[in-house]
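Whiteboard transcription, Tuesday session. T.W. wrote the C-alpha cells on the left side:
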C-alpha cells in the first residue's frame, strides 16, 4: 500500500509541475516541491516554492484559481483512478 501511495504522490507532483509550467507566465519561477496525499487517496496538498518571494501570493492565487482545470488535466494525463480534492500551499521557508 505504501508503494502505491508513494507512486500516486509522485504522479501528482510531476503532473502539477507540468501543469503549472504550462499555465504560469515568465514573471516568476514556480517549483512544485512535494505532494502530500491522504492514505485514502481522497485529498492532496501540493506545495509550491516561488521565486521571487514577492510573487508568492500571485502564484498561489494562480494555482488555486485553476484547480478545476488541473483536475481535468489529471484525468486526461494520468492513470489515477480519480482526481483527489486538491489544495495548493506555499512551502514554508526556513
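and on the right, the sequence the group agreed on:
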Amino acid at each position: 500500500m505504501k508503494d502505491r501511495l508513494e507512486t500516486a504522490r509522485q504522479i501528482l507532483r510531476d503532473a502539477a509541475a507540468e501543469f503549472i509550467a504550462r499555465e504560469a507566465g515568465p514573471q516568476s519561477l514556480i517549483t512544485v516541491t512535494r505532494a502530500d496525499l491522504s492514505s485514502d487517496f481522497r485529498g492532496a496538498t501540493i506545495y509550491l516554492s516561488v521565486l521571487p518571494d514577492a510573487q508568492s501570493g500571485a502564484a498561489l492565487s494562480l494555482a488555486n484559481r485553476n484547480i478545476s482545470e488541473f483536475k481535468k488535466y489529471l484525468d486526461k494525463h494520468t492513470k489515477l483512478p480519480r482526481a483527489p480534492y486538491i489544495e495548493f500551499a506555499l512551502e514554508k521557508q526556513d
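Someone added at the bottom: The chain has a mean pLDDT of 92.
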